[in-house]
Amino acid sequence: MVHRRVAALGMATAIVAAATHACSSFDASESTSAPADAAAADGTASSSAPDGRAPGCLTAPADPAGEAEFCAFEQRYFERCGQCEECRQRNLNDCSAFGAGASRGFKKVLVACAERLKCVEFKDLAGDPCFEEHLPTLELSQKQLEVKAAYCAACPDRVDECATFYARGPDGGGALAGSIVAIMNDELAEEVRKGCANQFYCDPGLFGLCSYGKLCDYYKGKDNCDKSLCK
């Protein structure tokens, strides 16, 4: 449980992050990847050094299925970082499913930050400094706003958490209880509203864990390189 809470906090916090994966450990990791030719024998990741560019090392998916912009971003990011392992190609082939679980706002930030993102695993992208710059203008859907409204109605004493649900306060602090919700699509956000936005999850850490669980129900097993995602 403690391990899951730490993971949760790291994953979303900096777009997020808040939980982001939930709540308190919000720094993005530096890239510690190895070059593509040092990939593990089973094809799992060992990402390459930052900006170890390898244009053309991956093949664009035949059918991006409505996620053309996200799929183009993913290929560009992998190749910019020299992440050319076979598991990356499998991720790229499945990019439409991966992109479909993310919110429009989150994907717009990924595209905007494409050349500045650190070379890390996808679960750590939300902790990238570039996201901090986009937090104030992050596009939120009606469903995401409804999650905040439901949380604040169920937890009227959590004034600070409601004030900084999706954005940091003037001092740069704040719980960012909704950071995980900010990166998920409307269907997942609605699941959070129904299952997490109640008096049992008023603590921002617990709310983050509950939100993370909904996110993991969708993403578990979808990253062919990072086998620890939602494990």
Give keywords.
231 residues; 11 helices; 46% helix; disordered N terminus
Q: How many separate helices?
A: 11
Number of strands: 0
Integer count of domains: 1
Q: How would you sum up the global shape?
A: elongated
Q: Give the C-alpha Rg.
A: 17 Å
Largest beta-sheet characterization: none
Regions with pLDDT < 50 over 5+ consecutive residues? 1-50
Q: Level of helix content?
A: 40-55%
SSE pattern, N- to C-terminal: HHHHHHHHHHH
Percent in strands: under 5%
Average of pLDDT: 77
State the end-to-end distance.
12 Å
Structural account:
With 231 residues, the protein is mainly alpha-helical. It has one domain. Helix content is 46%, strand content 0%. The protein is built from 11 helices and no strands. Helix 7 packs parallel to helix 10. The longest helix is centred in the last third of the chain and has 16 residues. It is elongated and about 55 Å long. 46% of the residues are buried. The N terminus is likely disordered.
Task: Describe the structure concisely for a colleague.
The protein has one domain.
Task: List the topology elements.
Layout: H1 2-16, H2 68-80, H3 86-93, H4 95-100, H5 104-112, H6 129-134, H7 142-154, H8 159-163, H9 179-183, H10 186-195, H11 204-219
